[in-house]
Specification:
Strand content: 15-25%
Shape: elongated
Number of strands: 16
Distance between the termini: 76 Å
Low-confidence stretches: none
Number of helices: 16
Bound molecules: zinc ion
Radius of gyration: 31 Å
């Protein structure tokens, strides 16, 4: 059924810029403070109070715009978007309308459909166009108590009123829920790399709305679009899109007409519900904000921002593949955050073994971090320390098995690899004489197994190796052990 239709998705993302003060006043943007404690006449919308634009908002917006290849307009205009809502005390929101901060951007990123178990099928590079990025203020927050009961109450918290947002509007370029998912993931990473947004959908500092329509494959005119809201996590976004695509196809197949409306995702039921039809939609009566001059951004400032741009996630992913011969998957995981990528590159340098550094971070260290709920920026084992440990494996001072135990101990205690190894009784034993002596004892104390081995039960080699490792407290060099014990069991051993 899916094959008969083409899916068209456009995305609108609201990213909260992480300035310390609000967009038009000096109130704090701190999250979680006492309700209504971070307010003043400007963000309370009191008559006569005048907005003054926060310079940090412009700088952060410029970073975001350049990260998404948008052209920054030398002059943009703030407009009033008029509507009534209890948590919008002015009765309008200051936003941008016909002359936005920036326009015509794009990102080119890897994207893939996923199989039933959520694994990527085939990564392909695809370019998604971005229509615009404009600046606006956030509204306050309404909290409802006992929503469906007769004695329900509503509260308004205006701490969020006037918090700066960048609204990023894509072109309708997404053809599946996974393309949309990969794009939002990338956008979040780009905003985090440029340090302008925390990018946490669950905490609401990155919010996403989607427009979805379907049309018969090959058609030129898009179908009627439905707006989806309440997509509070990456998983919800993808699942809601998937549900909505199926719903629209089923409706069209049964002869129904899709109506233009806004629908809310309900995670509990895994369904979207109609919130309002567009017939009741607002007419925002936009007009230029008379209390703010046009926003003029100089070439000098844009150049200054350009100079201070970090390497962006996709560029860094490609460089890591090239420079350290990493697999695309490993490189993607290692560039998930800027701190992760920095940690990796520092470990690669300290260890002089980039491939091994990637494996130790992605397998062993990430597991410990997950188990203890720790971010890599606060890892008890630093990049230098992990690099030193990898060098000890490479020069055969310790075995891979010892290193795994050592890392867990280093993680727990914060000690260096040298301290931990010496507490474990010293490094790996590679001395052939010592290992030969140990092998003699092991063979002598297991005569029955020796006989079985010699009568053809060669699988018992594993048993002898195990006994050797046990006798050495795990410190014997496994390669030397394997070679020596085999030799002694088969040939030289017989003469003893
Ligand atoms: Zn204020």
């Amino acid at each position: 059924m899916r094959d008969k239709y083409e899916v068209v998705i456009g995305l609108e993302i609201h990213a909260q810029l992480k300035t310390e003060s609000k967009i038009f006043c000096s109130c704090s943007t701190r999250f979680g403070d006492e309700p209504n404690s971070n307010t003043c006449p400007v963000c309370l919308g009191l008559p006569g109070a005048l907005p003054v634009l926060n310079r940090a908002v412009v700088e952060m917006s410029a970073h975001a715009a350049l990260a998404l290849n948008l052209t920054i307009n030398q002059e943009s205009i703030f407009s009033r978007k008029n509507y009534f809502y209890p948590d919008l005390p002015k009765g309008y929101q200051i936003s941008q309308y016909d002359r936005p901060f920036s326009e015509r951007g794009w990102v080119e990123i890897p994207t893939s459909e996923r199989n039933e178990s959520g694994h990527a099928i085939e990564w392909k590079m695809k370019r998604f166009r971005i229509h615009r990025l404009h600046i606006e203020e956030d509204a306050g927050k309404s909290l409802h108590e006992g929503m469906r009961e007769s004695a329900s109450k509503s509260y308004v918290d205006l701490n969020r009123s006037g918090v700066p947002l960048a609204e990023i509007v894509s072109e309708p370029d997404f053809r599946s829920s996974w393309e949309a998912y990969d794009y939002v993931q990338y956008l979040r990473r780009a905003l985090q790399y440029t340090d302008v947004c925390d990018g946490n959908m669950e905490e609401g500092n990155l919010r996403c709305d989607a427009n979805v329509s379907i049309m018969p494959r090959g058609a030129e005119k898009f179908g009627t679009k439905v707006e989806l809201k309440n997509l509070n996590s990456f998983r919800f976004l993808q699942r809601a899109l998937e549900y909505e695509i199926d719903r629209q196809i089923a409706a069209v197949e049964s002869g129904e007409r899709i109506i233009q409306e806004t629908r809310l995702w309900n995670e509990r039921d895994s369904k979207t519900y109609s919130m309002r039809s567009k017939e009741e939609a607002h007419d925002y009566r936009y007009f230029p904000e008379p209390d703010l001059p046009p926003l003029v951004v100089s070439e000098t400032m844009i150049e200054h921002v350009r100079q201070s741009m970090p390497e962006l996630p996709e560029a860094r992913r490609r460089r890591l593949i090239e420079q350290y011969s990493l697999s695309p998957d490993d490189a993607a995981q290692l560039t998930d955050t800027r701190t992760m990528a920095d940690f990796y590159e520092a470990t690669a340098r300290a260890s002089a073994n980039p491939k091994s550094a990637a494996n130790w971070i992605l397998n062993e260290l990430v597991r410990e971090l997950k188990n203890t709920g720790t971010d890599i920026s606060a890892s008890p084992v630093g990049a230098e320390s992990l690099g030193a440990m990898i060098r000890k494996i490479d020069d055969q001072t310790i075995s891979g098995k010892m290193a795994k135990d050592a890392l867990i101990e280093m993680y727990k205690s914060g000690k260096s690899v040298d301290e931990v190894v010496s507490e474990m009784g010293g490094g790996q034993v590679s001395d052939e004489g010592a290992i030969r002596e140990m092998a003699r004892q092991v063979i002598a104390s297991n005569p029955r197994q020796l006989e079985q081995y010699r009568s053809g039960k060669s699988t018992l080699l594993g048993f002898f190796v195990g006994q050797m490792m046990k006798a050495s407290g795990g410190r014997a060099n496994p390669q030397v052990v394997n070679r020596v014990i085999k030799e002694m069991l088969e040939g030289e051993g017989q003469q003893n």
